[in-house]
Amino acid sequence: MKIDKNISIKPYNTFGIDCLASYFCELSSLTDLQELIASDLFKKEKHLILGRGSNVLFTKDFEGIVIHNSIKGIVIDAEEEDYIHLRVNSGELWHDLVMYCVRHQWGGVENLSLIPGTVGAAPIQNIGAYGVEVKDVIEKVEVIDLHNGHTRVLSKEECKFGYRESVFKHEREKNFFISSVTLTLTKKNHRFTTSYGALNSTLNQMNHGVQTLQAISEAVIKIRTEKLPDHQAMGNAGSFFKNPEISESLFQKIKEQYPSIPFYPAANQQVKVPAGWLIEQCGWKGKRIGDAGVHAHQALVLINYGHASGEEIFSLSKKISVSVKEKFSITLTPEVNIF
Ligand code: EPU
After folding, report:
1. Residues 121-168: pLDDT tens digits?
2. pLDDT tens readout for residues 273-309
3. String of b and e for 287-300 (b: at least 16 CB within 10 Å)?
């Protein structure tokens, strides 16, 4: 295991922000991790675990150790007639795993095609798209407690999954290094989820509505490619904010003025409204301040057009939040982790 000093983390965050990490460590095995935990440097410095950096915004240099997780490997944990249980090491790329499952005809993750990031990052924010969340297929998550190097296995219930939420975002569990994720996937009698409007219409267009794992994956890839910018061409971290959940009374008040507002039912009699729609109504879609901008096809995605600093992106996000608050009395919460 090698630790480098004063490394630019531009290649390790999809916003393409050029910041420095005081120390940078690449992990390719759990032995590397145990060696790091035992080191004096680790005891002295704060740390940040990065997968592919697809959900972070750096607003300043990171004074500590950035740990880059490249621990790969997929094994079959168990197999039954109808299901396969797949244990996947956390440094695998999520989309590569989805493609591997689709190729083997294992169902459950096809709606989550083309989501950037690693397998280890997926449970932290309970990644979701087109009616499916990763919690729907997670059986258990294995972690290493960075305080003492001990291994623990958390059941799906112990992960406390919610909308872009899990126990791994809480203070104590932030110190867990996710080492592997075990998924339960269908081998036959797949449960297709295709009711999401855009997915349904794209499937009809592309495959006359025929539902296979391959067809759903291809349709999702088509929608995402059209709507969401490729971070290699334009730095971004996907949705910048979460979709807010508001009270029924506030929703009704907004609906009187904007009868076409899209919405979804949420827990506790709340209503979920798309942040992208709110941001567009405030006139931000396609706007640009210097090299920081709002994507022209999806207002929920903030863009680094080249040389924006993390501060500039963050400042744009604050301006957007203020105008949404003023117009709709709704507070937006970032989905992206800001450092
Ligand atoms: N909308 C607008 N203007 C916009 C963007 C969206 O009016 O600029 C409207 C759309 O017309 C649609 C609604 O808002 O009626 C929802 O839009 P979309 O289907 O694009 O999804 P989203 O709610 O903006 C969420 C996830 C995405 C996920 C898609 C598809 C969050 C924060 N985002 O976006 O996840 O891919 O649904 O399921 O929940 C991510 O988390 O990084 C991400 C990309």
Report:
1. 999 999 999 999 999 999 999 999 999 999 999 999 999 999 999 999
2. 999 999 999 999 999 999 999 999 999 999 999 999 9
3. beeeebbbbeebbb
> Which pair of structure tokens corresponds to residue 164?
């872009």
Of 295, 306, 329, 297, the C-alpha closest to 317 is 295
Long-range contacts of 200-209 (CB under 8 A, 24+ apart): none
Beta strands 56-57 and 337-338: pairing type? Answer: parallel
300, 303, 317: residue to mutate for ligand 1 pocket, most atoms within 8 A of CB: 300
- Supply the DSSP string of 207-263, one letter for each residue: HTT---HHHHHHHHHHHHHHHS--TTTSB--SBSBPPPEEEHHHHHHHHHH-TT---
In the chain the domains, ranked by start, together with CATH numbers, are 3-69 (3.30.43.10), 74-227 (3.30.465.10), 245-338 (3.90.78.10)
Buried b (16+ CB within 10 A) or exposed e, 260-279: ebeeeeeeeeebbbbbbbbb
Contact 262, 243 (CB under 8 A): no
Q: Which atom of ligand 1 is nearest to the CA of 279?
A: 8
- How is residue 188 annotated by DSSP? S
Q: Are strands 176-186 and 138-145 parallel, antiparallel or unpaired?
A: antiparallel
Run of H or E residues at 34: helix 30-38
Coil, strand or helix: which one is 300? Answer: coil
- In short, whether 130's Cβ falls inside 6 Å of ligand 1 is yes
Ligand 1 within 6 A of CB of 300: yes
Cα(229)–Cα(237) distance, rounded to whole angstroms? 9
- The residue type at 112: L
Give me the pLDDT at residue 265, please.
87
The DSSP code for 74 is E
